[in-house]
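In response to reviewer comment 3 from the previous cycle, which asked for concrete evidence that the modeling workflow produces usable outputs, we include below a single protein chain processed end to end. The sequence was submitted unchanged, and the resulting structure tokens are shown without manual editing.
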Amino acid sequence: MSMINKHREPSRLPGKTEAGLDKISNLPGNVIDQILSYLPIRDAVRSSVLSRKWRYKWATIPNLVFEDQYLNASSQDQTFIENKLVNIIDHVLLLHKGPIHKFKLSHRDLLGVTDIDRWILFISRSSIKEFILEIWKGQLYKPPSCLFDCQNLIHLELFNCLLKPPLAFKGFKNLKSLDLQHITIVQDVFENLISSCPLLEKLTLMNFTGITHLNINAPNLQFFDIGGIFDDVSFQNTFHLAMVSIDLYVNIDINENVAPDSSSKLLRFFVNLPHIRRLEVQSFFLKARPKEQTSVERSNNFWENDHWSSVFGHLRLVKVSGISGVKLEMDFIKFLLSNSPVLERLTVKPASQDGEWELMKELLRFRRASIFAEVIYLDP
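The workflow returned the following structure tokens.
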């Protein structure tokens, strides 16, 4: 009988196949890029230790975001934290290869250091599309003139900055979203900035210094969010504006010496918004100063003025927050309900629980032009 020798293959442990030895290294390059795009920059840099294929792969990611959680320093020394953050950003930018589409710097321990000038100069040489800079401490930071050379910008966001564009600045021709908060800027510079961004669709303005009158000239504007203290706000060529959020203290000047058909500040705010579909209002925008309130109460026909006809013909969603039930507030809400034929929802949030039952009863008595309009009452 012939003998058959069976040679048993060496056993292989599960997962120890050639493909399984290093699954991470064998990922396609586009998959690695996708993974890195979802990681914070700190973790993306650390991915270099995974394998040779991953080493410095992070250096090509186009979005660089440096936020508070990026640096977990145990030291409370401001200088130590700032120096460490500066060294990290310098290191990342030094090793980075390829275009930078987004750069965000927002750290509460970072002052307006001169190093930011270097970083902005570096990224201005790339095809930067989104730039976000938030300086939380110290003096106002004045961005260098090279920032205004970034003509590929689509989104620009600045916090605690002094804006003085160079005289040769002709606007951001591709900018669609602009967010300016705690900004110092003069009147003519602001107006030139807005009007020279022809594609601007979204505009957020909060807490300005050096300017009291806002004249918004933006033909493609669709979203407008405003907060702070301004004497006046007016619009030009904003017929596409559909969503407005007002968190604003404004001096409403309506008194017995003003003719019923004159252009009050409140009137000018709304009359150039014929296509507005969504409105959010903090009630102090509707409150006059005490000496003016009696005068306003005498103008019983203010909201019945012909200027208001068809102003809210497209309005669908409204939210009014912080109301206390004063006449100006209630007249405004009454007018909205009776002159918004396609209104779907009016949400009211009072400032306190005082008199809320009477407030609710009065709201329910108001006539509604839209049979689909519902009034939602939120607890304070």
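The mean pLDDT is 78. We consider this sufficient to address the reviewer's concern, and the full set will be provided in the supplementary archive.
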